[in-house]
Specification:
Number of strands: 23
Strand content: 15-25%
Strand order of the largest sheet: 8-9-10-1-11-21-12
Shape: globular
Length: 546
Amino acid sequence: MHHAHLLMLAIGATMTFSAAAQDAAAPPPIRVMLRARSGGADRLTPLRYIGGFETKTLLYETLVRRGQDGRIVPGLASRWWIDDDGRTCHFELREGALFHDGKPVTASAVCVHFQRWIGLPEHDWLPVNRYLRGVEVESERVFAVKLEQPYSLLADLCAVNPCAIVGPGARDWEGEFQRPMGTGPFRFLGSFDDCKRWRIARTEPGGPVVDVTFAPRGRDTTPIDALQRGEIDAFVGGWDEDLPGERLDELARDPRFVVQTAPGSSVAYVSFRLSEGPTADVAIRRRIAAAIDRQALIDAVEGARADASTTWAAPSVAFWPRSNTKAGAPRPAEAAAGATPIVLRLAAGRGTGRAARIAEAVKGQLERAGFQVELLARPAARVDSEGEKRPQPGAGGTEGTVRPLDDESGEVRAARNRAVREAAEAADLRIEITHGVPYCPHESLVARFGPVRAKNHDEPRPRTGVDPRLQALVAAAMSTPDEAACIPIYAEIQALMDAEALIVPLYSPRRVALRTAGVDGISLGIDVYRVDLTGLRRVQANTEHR
């Protein structure tokens, strides 16, 4: 027994040494920073709104997604068909699809995931949630989604939360979420540093191990500073990434680093108060549109890292109907018409972010065209320090200890957004930014111009301050299940926007990724919530000749 025990200890020591030697021989993980609200691995699920959409696209798949031209293409579902009445959509799952634990993706597993979220009010930002009536298994790989009325279901299912599919192996036998598990290109290995760093690896053999860290959303230099200090190997921006242009220019001149850009899909635009004031007059809106110099805005606000846009959807969304509007220089003669200056009140989001800087530049252009422009006071970008420490109310009206309120708490973000909306209601003009693919073009259109279906109200009601003709066209697109059939409606929408100057599209910010010269293989598509690291690799850096 004694000799056997010593032998086992020796074997154990050898195995431990071999594993340690193997780990030492393996290349270190590639360190990638993303923008996200950080949180524990127990919350990294599409049914929780934390951890970052960009992170989740590495681990989870939606049934459908948007391709490089913006059209809906297969995802976890390889094909689909819609019944003639438009109330049932059938999905066939990709043959051979496996969850990260090796178990097959079945229609039953997908239906169980759907049953965990459909109808819950926290998901009502996804308009189809109000119309879903259930899911039914039809075969091992085919299931059906039932709707109370015809609806553009596929556009909503491109979203990450909550439409990305979580595998049954993510939960224990009591149904409690235990670990991230999907069908995405990366699988979850573990979390470190009090869940501030997550380790993932390619599901296909041969890919690198990646450590993911997080930077809070907002205009700051955290990713650039971390890259220059050697704390990360790469950073990939998501929606509305807003790094200072002068710092990007500095980084691009340094042979140790690479600044990578690609067309984005969100659009900054000017919207109007149509119900009253000077902008209720289409002639005034046309004068405002004529005064805009898009390229000057791009140079001033983005350091030339943007693409001029004259349509609701960005130029990268290739299937969206084009506009007759030209993106050239303003027309001085028309802009200078009118002896009495018209006073315009302009709202610009919050803090010092992109919308605020666009507003300052637009103000200058309109003033040169003869308008008087008043910038309305902007709500604060963050809550004060006292608010950050205030605890949430607990059960029975007492002060709770579950989770203190901070700037990322849902209550704080909702209050901040309400303040922005209230400020915008008093404005003649507003600077707004669409959410980009996969929400653009359809979901952003519905959210901004579609009818409102308020809580505890079964029937949608008209949205205040939206041209009724535009609202009717958006409602028609919402009730059209087939995307191809929506395209003529989109053409009518764009034509109406042009004819009545209902908005003034400005530009689409470009996507950005930063990396050291020692890594490569980051792909930037038009889906601003999707991070493609499948080609990520280490390379032999040449810092002298790039």
